[in-house]
């Protein structure tokens, strides 16, 4: 078996269909006899090239083609890929043209998005394959892949470079560069520069003849630019936004290619003057980098201070992403390092004006990933992409030495809140074993709080909430474990505008005698208002019958009597505004005294006997005071007895004599009236 046949069989056996999700570098190599020297140059340069870019998370694919065979593509490890390249040998005849378009199509079919297709050939494409251009263009549009054609010959020395290649390169964001054997090695330098930098915008043009002036804008997100000019004796001159000629780094400068790199650019309009002997193509590579800040937490974070640099695996985790405020997030993708898998994450805006966004995911232990961010400029609608450095989830088995807690305030030591607002404070606590955490205020109240682990095994975030901020206070977070304790305090100032709102005002009341009566007066005022009460224009002072209940905003009449009636005024004053609110208090339930009339009004009784005078006070509210009095025939009045109740008030007179003759009167009186009955007594001999 010939060596050539062995290689062909080997390629056929190990090649299997595959679809990649990560970026691929596909080397499409013409293996016809005419490419003998080129294949030798490829083998001489491929090792150094692959070694310099193998850490850029790319997939290497080799796709040989000849006439009429194309492929199959070989997807291998880095070392396996190099082995396959070194096994390449030319075969067939010096055919021209070749089936290069079919090879480009297959390369796009078998590679992932954003891949680079490098075509090495010395022949123009077959005319019968021209229809493939439309398919190739569609695939490039969908996959955002790039095709670069390194051409080392022509079917005839007098032939121009075939326009079909220019069409492919233009539609696939690439270029066509004609190399001779002495300069082909520069193609690999070009490949290195393309792969090493994350160029996220590629513009290709080929319609310049001998010269062209190209204007391009540099914005604040542009970090690097590379301009490639392919043609006969190309050259380029860059004029910056100040009209000055720039010093640029020329990485390739041959008779058929000129490639320059510009770094540390400042914002403004630039011009590129390109020249050449004949037709040429200009390809402009732009790297725009989003400055992305990000962090992870199991609780919805409000700032990066409330996150860790890596997620805890196995639990639902928030991802906080912070962009420049001029950008609007359009997508977040999770790129798994080893597999190349991409996961689109749902996200929501926390604060678009500040560029705060949040997504959610459950991360797997041991799976390193990157965050791929795409954003759009709010004004010019430019799409900008960025990728974070690799992130490895935290190790659940990580251990640490015992340590005294350290409490770190998140946010400001002095905080302002509007009156009545709900306010949340946060602290980061580092300690092992897990500290006991408590939040208190300056009057000894314990505040409700949450605590979450943010970094295994010893860093926690703790949050306390003041549900209704109504006063200035000092909030303290304390953490304690077996190794010691630490605490930090936060000052809360409650901000209130001048307010004066009467919430309760006194109203007229009628109170049953002896019952309780209440008048209310409440104000929501800032500065704080003082309340005083007046009763019939005299300041009210607490006593046994009048009490103040500040917690109920009430004046209480505990036992209604006639002295408690009248006009009450609630005076409110905070030195900015004052108000007087009045109400009348009326008593009810008063009853005039009434004495039941006696059955006998005139009594005649023998000397030496006993007499019982009956008096029955039937009603009276308040309870009347009652008494018996005696009026002698000469008009002298003597008080005999008194009482203070409803019911009988009898008076007994024993062993009467002539001096007991006269008028006996029973009187009952209260604040309303007086009622009296009279009984006369006449003493006779037996």
TrEMBL record:
<feature type="domain" description="Ig-like">
    <location>
        <begin position="593"/>
        <end position="680"/>
    </location>
</feature>
<feature type="signal peptide">
    <location>
        <begin position="1"/>
        <end position="21"/>
    </location>
</feature>
<dbReference type="InterPro" id="IPR036465">
    <property type="entry name" value="vWFA_dom_sf"/>
</dbReference>
<dbReference type="InterPro" id="IPR056861">
    <property type="entry name" value="HMCN1-like_VWA"/>
</dbReference>
<dbReference type="InterPro" id="IPR036179">
    <property type="entry name" value="Ig-like_dom_sf"/>
</dbReference>
<dbReference type="InterPro" id="IPR013098">
    <property type="entry name" value="Ig_I-set"/>
</dbReference>
<dbReference type="Pfam" id="PF07679">
    <property type="entry name" value="I-set"/>
</dbReference>
<dbReference type="InterPro" id="IPR007110">
    <property type="entry name" value="Ig-like_dom"/>
</dbReference>
<dbReference type="GO" id="GO:0032991">
    <property type="term" value="C:protein-containing complex"/>
</dbReference>
<feature type="domain" description="Ig-like">
    <location>
        <begin position="405"/>
        <end position="489"/>
    </location>
</feature>
<dbReference type="InterPro" id="IPR003598">
    <property type="entry name" value="Ig_sub2"/>
</dbReference>
<keyword id="KW-0393">Immunoglobulin domain</keyword>
<dbReference type="Pfam" id="PF25106">
    <property type="entry name" value="VWA_4"/>
</dbReference>
<dbReference type="GO" id="GO:0048468">
    <property type="term" value="P:cell development"/>
</dbReference>
<dbReference type="InterPro" id="IPR003599">
    <property type="entry name" value="Ig_sub"/>
</dbReference>
<keyword id="KW-0964">Secreted</keyword>
<feature type="domain" description="Ig-like">
    <location>
        <begin position="500"/>
        <end position="588"/>
    </location>
</feature>
<dbReference type="InterPro" id="IPR013783">
    <property type="entry name" value="Ig-like_fold"/>
</dbReference>
<protein>
    <recommendedName>
        <fullName>Ig-like domain-containing protein</fullName>
    </recommendedName>
</protein>
<keyword id="KW-0732">Signal</keyword>
């Amino acid at each position: 078996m010939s060596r050539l046949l062995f290689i062909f069989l080997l390629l056929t056996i190990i090649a299997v269909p595959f679809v990649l999700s990560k970026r691929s570098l596909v080397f499409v190599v013409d293996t016809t006899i005419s490419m003998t020297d080129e294949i030798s140059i490829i083998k001489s340069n491929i090792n150094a090239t692959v070694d310099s870019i193998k850490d850029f998370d790319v997939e290497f694919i080799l796709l040989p083609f000849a006439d009429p065979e194309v492929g199959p593509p070989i997807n291998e490890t880095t070392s396996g890929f190099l082995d396959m390249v070194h096994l390449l040998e030319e075969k067939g005849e010096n055919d021209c043209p070749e089936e290069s378009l079919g090879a480009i199509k297959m390369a796009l079919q078998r590679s992932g998005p954003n891949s680079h297709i490098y075509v090495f050939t010395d022949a123009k494409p077959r005319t019968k394959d021209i229809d493939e251009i439309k398919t190739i263009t569609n695939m490039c549009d969908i996959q955002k892949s790039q095709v670069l054609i390194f051409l080392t010959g022509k079917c005839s020395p007098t032939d121009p470079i075939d326009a079909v290649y220019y069409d492919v390169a233009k539609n696939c964001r690439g270029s066509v560069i004609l190399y001779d054997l002495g300069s082909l090695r520069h193609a690999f330098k070009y490949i290195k520069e393309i792969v090493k930098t994350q160029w996220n915008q590629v513009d290709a043009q080929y319609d310049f003849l001998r010269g062209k002036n190209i204007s391009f804008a540099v914005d604040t997100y542009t970090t690097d630019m590379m301009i490639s000019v392919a043609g006969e004796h190309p050259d380029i001159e860059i004029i910056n936004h100040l009209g000055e000629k720039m010093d640029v780094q020329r990485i390739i400068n041959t008779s058929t290619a000129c490639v320059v790199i510009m770094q540390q650019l400042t914002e403004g309009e630039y011009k590129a003057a390109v020249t050449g002997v004949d037709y040429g193509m200009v390809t402009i590579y732009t790297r725009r980098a989003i400055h992305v800040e990000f962090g992870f937490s199991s609780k919805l974070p409000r700032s990066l201070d409330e996150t860790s640099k890596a997620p805890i695996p196995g639990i639902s985790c928030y991802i906080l992403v912070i962009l420049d405020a001029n950008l609007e997030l359009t997508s977040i993708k999770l790129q798994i390092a080893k597999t190349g898998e991409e996961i689109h994450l749902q996200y929501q805006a926390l604060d678009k004006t500040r560029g705060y966004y949040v997504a959610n995911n459950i991360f797997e232990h041991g799976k390193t990933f990157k965050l791929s961010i795409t954003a759009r400029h709010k004004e010019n609608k430019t799409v900008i992409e960025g990728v974070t450095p690799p992130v490895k989830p935290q190790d659940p088995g990580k251990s640490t030495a015992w340590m005294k807690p350290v409490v770190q305030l998140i946010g400001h030591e002095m905080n302002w809140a509007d009156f009545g607002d709900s306010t949340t404070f946060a602290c980061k606590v580092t300690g092992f074993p897990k500290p006991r955490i408590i939040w208190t205020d300056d009057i000894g109240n314990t505040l409700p709080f949450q605590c979450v682990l943010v970094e295994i095994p010893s860093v926690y975030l703790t949050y306390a909430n003041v549900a209704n901020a109504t006063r200035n206070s000092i909030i303290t977070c304390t953490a304690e474990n077996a190794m010691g304790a630490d605490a930090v305090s936060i000052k809360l100032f409650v901000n209130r505008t001048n307010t004066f709102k009467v919430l309760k005002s006194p109203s007229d009341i009628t109170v049953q005698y002896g019952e309780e009566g209440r008048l209310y007066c409440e104000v929501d005022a800032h500065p704080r208002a003082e309340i005083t009460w007046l009763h019939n224009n005299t300041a009210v002072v607490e006593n046994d019958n009048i009490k103040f209940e500040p917690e109920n905003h009430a004046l209480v009449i505990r036992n209604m009597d006639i002295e408690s009636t009248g006009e009450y005024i609630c005076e409110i004053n905070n030195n900015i505004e004052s108000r007087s609110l009045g109400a009348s208090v009326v008593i009810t339930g008063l009853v005039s005294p009434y004495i039941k009339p006696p059955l006998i009004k005139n009594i005649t009784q023998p000397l030496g006997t006993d007499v019982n005078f009956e008096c029955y006070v039937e009603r009276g509210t308040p309870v009347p005071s009652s008494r018996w009095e005696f009026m002698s025939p000469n008009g002298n009045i003597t008080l005999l007895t008194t009482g203070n109740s409803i019911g009988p008030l009898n008076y007994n007179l024993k062993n009467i004599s002539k001096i007991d003759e006269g008028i006996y009167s029973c009187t009952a009186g209260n604040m309303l009236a007086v009622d009296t009955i009279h009984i006369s007594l006449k003493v006779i001999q037996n």
